[in-house]
Design goal:
By secondary structure, this protein is an all-alpha fold. The chain is built from 1 helix and no strands. 97% of the residues lie in helices and 0% in strands. The longest helix is centred in the middle third of the chain and has 57 residues. The radius of gyration is 25 Å and the shape is rod-shaped.
Length: 59
């Protein structure tokens, strides 16, 4: 009886740890996938603005 309860609790704890790890990995992947285009867009607009300023100063 108690052995069954212990094994069940152990399995539940293991599954919780496993799902937590998977969720963490998924969160990291989704945030990097979300932030990469945003970051590249900001970097691209920054480069374009910088080039525009340099061009305006040169002429």
């Amino acid at each position: 009886m108690w052995i069954k309860v212990g094994i069940t609790m152990l399995i539940i704890a293991f599954l919780q740890l496993f799902t937590l790890h998977v969720a963490e990995q998924f969160t990291v992947i989704s945030t990097s996938l979300f932030y990469y285009p945003v970051g590249s867009a900001i970097f691209g607009s920054f480069c374009i603005t910088l080039m525009y300023i340099v061009k305006e100063r040169g002429s």
